[in-house]
Design brief:
Length: 185
Amino acid sequence: MRLTSAYSVAVYHAEYCTFYESSTAPALARLDPFFSQDIRPDSHQLALIQSTIVTRRKNKPTRLIVLVPDAWLSTSQCQIDHLVPVSLLPLAALSYAVETTFLPPETLSFSFQQHSLPNKFAELAIFACSNEWRKQLCEPFKRPSHQCLLIPFSQWNSMSERSRSWSQCQKKPWLLISRINRSVE
């Protein structure tokens, strides 16, 4: 009897999308900047990329992490003259995401990271996209009762190998742009 993988990883590239098992996820420890595309594809180009998706497994993964190039999202960084309290980080990030995307908050998916800088300064990195774009990115992977987490490349690269387990990824809502579960949406 073969144990099932904890999750699978789908990695979007400029021209294709590839699948990996979680056991090979350490090989994705540092996604090459080569994969980072400067321009976000339009809906037609994304459909062409999604048509290249081939899974070699007989059983579809029930848990999936989808990695996308940062350039496919609205990304911004800002320096703040103080550390933002953890309880206020989501609100601060949402404010910056709304400002950079010009989208209403209810139509926005976002994630963020805060980094400490010298002299009690902080840098806040925000990743955002419309809910519509998020749904398009995850559409090929949605199945009843399947879970899908969307993560930008740079956030994946900043995670330690130990924190890339499914349970650890789920515990970090600040790390993920979206959690998709077909039964919820």
